[in-house]
UniProtKB/TrEMBL annotation:
Pfam family, one: Abhydrolase_6
Domain named AB hydrolase-1: residues: 10-244
Superkingdom, taxonomy of origin: Eukaryota
Descriptive protein name: Alpha/beta hydrolase fold-1
Organism name: Aspergillus tamarii
An example Gene Ontology molecular-function term: hydrolase activity
Keywords: Hydrolase
Amino acid sequence: MSQPKQPPTLLLTPGSWHTPASQIYLQTALQNAGYPTQTIAHPTNGADPPSKTLTDDTTNLRHTLSHLIEQEGKDVVLIAHSYGGLVISNAAKGLGKKDRDKQGLQGGIVLMVYMTAFLVPKGKSLFEVLGEYRPANIVFEGSYCHATSVKESFYHDLSPEMLAEAEAQLTHTCIGAYTESVNYEPWRDIPCAYIFCQEDRALGLPIQEMLVEMMRASAPFPILTRRLRASHSPFYSMPMDTAEVIRYFVREVEGV
């Protein structure tokens, strides 16, 4: 008798300023649904001196992916919030499930989920794409990068108690996260999905929709989408609903 198929391992990849503690409610909801789930800590978040870059974050995630996929032969779903979209895009190169199947290799990335996350074309940095339209709540002190007005930008739908918890885990990040170029467009090779947050005040809905249309223009797979009436941080304001959307995406991907 064949063994039942194991669920994929889910890797949560936070945005800038956010530590793994920010994902605990979503991680718990996914684990309770039967999915092994981990959260990545970006080297750029909290680095002192602030010398870390997108390359450091990519290498860090790639190390975890290499262990799960190349050493353990596991299937993986990458889930990114905000800036984390750049990191998962970079780190996924060469690790797609279908490409590895063709090589007779076990494991691989079966799905990329972008949760109100940035998508940047290959060869461009986030700053190059944003141009003069950089968010007003970002303040730079040399290479240090701080988020301000976070209730308005990230957390306007949280209770006072949850807001205090969210603010307490924030840290600074490094300007190098935004000045280095992205080197891969995974939607050309790996199934992708996007969670629209309709009340997002940091990455507005029209921009989210534009990013998805960019993916669809060059993706050989349908881009799955779902909408939440949430701020920029649905992992805090509605973790159960967010987990259910992710579970829907996973079920929809063939072979998962």
